Amino acid sequence: MTSLAHLQMILERTQPLRWPRGERLPLFLWQLQGTPDLSDTALADALRELDRRGIAMLARWTTGDERDESLAQALRLGRIQQELGLLVGANCIAPLYSFFDGSPATAHVDDQRQSFFDDSFGKVPMGCPFGIEQRYGAIRSQVEFYADAYQRAGLQLGFVYSDWEVDGPLEWNDAWEHSKRCSRCRAQLPQIEDFTSFQHTLRTLRGEMQRQVYAQPLLSRWPQALVGNYAVYPHNGWRYWYDYFERFKPSLPHAFDAREPARPWADEFSGTGYSFAMPVMYTWYRTYDWYDYTTDYRWFYNMLKVASNAGQSAPRGLPIISFVHHNVTDPPAEGLGHVQPMSEAAYRELLWHALLRGHDAFFSWCPDDEAAHEAPLLHETWAESLEYAEFLTGGVPVTFDVPRREGAVLSALRLGDRLLVRRSDFAGSEGQRAWLELDGRRIEVTDGSGCRIVSIDK
Ligand SMILES: [Zn+2]
Asked: How far is the centre of ligand 1, averaged over its atoms, from the C-alpha of 180 (Å)?
């Protein structure tokens, strides 16, 4: 649950909004999940204070022995939020686990009818993509337990996300070899020797699972709700980052950008029915060594590629709520070594460029001991962006260009005959000329900090 210490820290380290949030989505913080141990009156006061800062609080849905207590606390939070006119939202991580529960029916099966699992994803016994349909009902009922209770209580759920990742069909690590050894996988996948076909089938199945057990039960009850999952978003067919549980395998398809092994990625999002996109813009430790840029641009370049991919690929009107993290993500136990962290200034610029490329809101993920750093840093930039809420809500991104040659980076939103532009300079590019292309015209953007509004009707 949200600890009182975190709640107090966040209230102390963030300021009430200077510009109204209007129709913009609130900010989501990892440490504000689960109903804090406060009376109804004190909880309402805390929620009002968070709302003055534009920050949401989410209920935390659990399973097992804690479930009844979680539900009671979730309903209490939701009722107070609804009375205050605030977003009613929930974290639906626990109810989606685990399809791969280690039971024999979920295992791959070899030609001698021996069952086996793939242990290349850590401690999760990854089984057969074609052996888990019998688990759908159990998982769906864990979601419906909450959905039914919210419905009975007359609550209007507005936002539900999950962080369902190391479970269900995944094509990376040693998954392909395991499937090729499995008689059931071979029967289901006549083109199993073709990785692209294998990947496409698994991602389609993965999307369908999420739709049946999670998106559909929620969206059928609350068609206007935002429902999504970590790392599931429209894209251009490529992924430029690796999650903590994924290894680079040179034998699997990839294309190098410097030393970044970008991977072809199949469409998972459209099968899910999700009503918002959830890209992941993190300072993954391994990113640093992929490029030869100056320190900040190593991080910035990769994260802007991810941001631009999602911004350009999401259909208009689909909200993009991105997971973000500033401190180096998933560093080795022995420490950072030669890896230099991203500066706060560059991180702030990255957030701005994501907003000017169509991202709508952010979700801060971080370990608890980083929250005092991450939450105010993110909040400050996000709160400043509300000065331009009109552009952010109604504007259309003008460019998704990510310069491979380090220098000036431009982003802009067009609203009618005006542009909201931002220029960030790297490797001493200040003073160099830079242009945006717009309707066949070149619009020069001079250097200088912050956002500017430029008229384009000349
Ligand atoms: Zn199998």
From this structure: 8
Distance 179 CA to ligand 1 centre (A): 5
Ligand 1 centroid to residue 128 C-alpha, Å: 4
Question: Which residues make Cβ contacts (< 8 Å) with residue 101, sequence separation at least 6?
Answer: 135
156 in a structural domain: yes
pLDDT digits (tens, 9 = 90+) for 429-444: 999 999 999 989 999 9
Domain encompassing residue 124: 4-395
- The enclosing domain of 36 has a CATH number of 3.20.20
Half-sphere exposure of residue 307: CA atoms within 13 angstroms, side-chain side: 33
Q: Looking at the predicted structure, is the pLDDT value of residue 68 above 80?
A: yes
Q: What is the pLDDT of residues 280-298, one digit of tens each?
A: 999 999 999 999 999 999 9
Q: Which residues contact 65 (CB under 8 A, 6 or more apart)?
A: none
180: in domain:
yes
**CA 253 to ligand 1 centroid distance, Å:** 21
Cβ atoms within 10 Å, residue 456? 16
Whether the pTM exceeds 0.70: the reply is: yes
Cα 166 to ligand 1 centre (Å): 17
Domain count, the chain: 1
Please tell me the distance between residue 182's alpha carbon and the centre of ligand 1 in angstroms: 5
Q: What is the pLDDT of residues 226-246, one digit of tens each?
A: 999 999 999 999 999 999 999
Closest CA to 357 of 290, 424, 293: 424
DSSP letter for each residue of 59-101: EE---GGGHHHHHHHHHHHHHHHHHTT---EEE-SGGG--S--
